[in-house]
Design a protein that fits this description.
Number of strands: 5
Distance between the termini: 9 Å
CATH class: Alpha Beta
Order of helices and strands: EHEHEHEHEH
Largest sheet: 5 strands, parallel
Number of helices: 5
Helix content: 40-55%
Structural class: alpha/beta
Number of domains: 1
CATH topology: Rossmann fold
CATH architecture: 3-Layer(aba) Sandwich
Strand order of the largest sheet: 2-1-3-4-5
Length: 187
């Protein structure tokens, strides 16, 4: 069992990284192999809507970061995607990744189908629910299984590390990790 966690924040070691890594730590305690990727380290170019992937060629946009990340999605049983809220939405960095992975997956044997997908959203004050739903829409359109938690997987924090002090949010992420691990063992 393998889980991939991706932080869509362009800020290194920020609140979104903390949130995604918290879920991965819970999964690791349950015996799941985990991997963390920060899009701050591996930015991905957006989809060009060229539809070359529909012709069976995969993605033809020259992008070594995407070429590195795509196989990680294919090999993972669970995928956790996190984003800070920017103007009420997921970051452009995460949306670029989602757009390209989703397009290639749908035209490449639907390799995301029946994997587990979980979203995490962090905001200074508000907007988490839309971002949470936005990422979940990607999972649902990809025919993935989206587990619940004790509440929505959202945290509040502005300054680096502040979200780690959101006790209810952290508990929600811990429950999410338990539920993902339970699901993985059922498969």
């Amino acid at each position: 069992m393998k889980a991939l966690g991706v932080s869509g924040s362009p800020r290194r070691a920020g609140n979104t990284d903390i949130a995604v890594q918290r879920v991965l730590a819970g999964l690791a305690r349950s015996g799941v192999e985990t991997e963390f990727v920060s899009l701050a380290e591996f930015p991905v170019k957006p989809c060009a809507a060229c539809y070359e992937c529909a012709k069976g060629r995969g993605c033809v946009i020259p992008d070594p970061n995407f070429d590195l990340l795509l196989p990680k999605f294919a090999r993972s049983d669970a995928i956790i995607l996190g984003s800070p809220v920017w103007f009420g939405s997921a970051t452009p960095q995460l949306m670029a990744l989602i757009g390209r992975v989703g397009s290639v997956a749908r035209r490449g044997g639907n390799f995301l189908r029946r994997k587990i997908g979980a979203s995490v959203a962090v905001a200074r004050r508000a907007g988490q629910n839309f971002t949470f739903a936005q990422i979940n829409m990607f999972f649902l359109a990809s025919e993935m299984i989206v587990p619940g938690s004790s509440y929505w997987n959202v945290l509040t924090g502005k300054e680096k590390g502040e979200a780690g002090r959101d006790a209810e949010g952290i508990q929600t992420l811990d429950t999410l990790a338990e539920n993902i691990a339970w699901l993985l063992k059922k498969f």
